[in-house]
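Practice problem 4.
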């Protein structure tokens, strides 16, 4: 299987950001993706891709500050929270 083109990866992650399941997460992650994806390194995109694989209920609780995020996503969740003004 060939490696995914960078532009295709950005489009895929943007689409996954806005088609979640919980409308609040659609809005939050769509805003974050619009603002940040293009400037992310490959490692940051990989981390964001992994975050998008997490359950929406968990993501919402992490981003809203109801529950501490999984340690591997703590920095990314903090960045999302900062962008939406939750900190």
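Answer key:
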């Amino acid at each position: 299987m060939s490696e995914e083109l960078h532009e295709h990866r950005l489009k895929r992650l943007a689409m996954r950001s806005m088609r979640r399941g919980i409308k609040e997460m659609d809005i939050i992650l769509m805003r974050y993706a619009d603002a940040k994806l293009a400037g992310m390194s490959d490692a940051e995109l990989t981390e964001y891709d992994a975050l998008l694989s997490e359950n929406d209920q968990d993501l919402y609780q992490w981003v809203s500050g109801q529950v501490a995020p999984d340690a591997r996503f703590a920095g990314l969740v903090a960045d999302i929270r900062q962008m939406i003004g939750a900190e």
